[in-house]
Amino acid sequence: MSAILGTRLRREREELGITQDVLAKGVGLSSEFISLLELGKRMPSLETLTALADYFRKDVSYFLKEKEETFKIILRAEGLD
Fold first, then answer.
1. What's the confidence (pLDDT) of residue 67?
2. CB-neighbour burial class of residue 36 (10 A; exposed 0-12, middle 13-18, buried 19+)
3. Least trusted range by pLDDT, from 12-16, 51-55, 64-68
């Protein structure tokens, strides 16, 4: 799941021609955390995922689409199910 998110996050960032630092500042995160997300080593909170989706003007599901269950897993992890 995090590999898909990381791949799509990097693709969107590179298509805009921005650095990890620019993205990090745009969504209120550290560039180190953006790097970990892109490498698939961390999963964002629902709040962070929403901020990233808003930044790229994408639906949250775009970053998680491989399985429909993914969004439900995040909601459950956040205690929002």
1. 57
2. middle
3. 64-68
Region 32-43 average pLDDT: 96
Task: State pTM to two decimals.
Answer: 0.78
Give domain limits for the chain.
2-77
CA distances from 47 to 14, 15, 35, 43, 53 (A): 22, 23, 18, 11, 10
What architecture does CATH give domain 2-77?
Orthogonal Bundle (1.10)
Please calculate the CA angle 26-31-32 and round it to the nearest 5 degrees.
Answer: 150
Return the percent helix, strand and coil in the chain, to nearest 5: 70, 0, 30
Q: How far is it, in rounded angstroms, from Cα 49 to Cα 53?
A: 6
Distance CA 50, CA 44 (A): 9
Q: Are 49 and 9 in contact (CB under 8 A)?
A: no
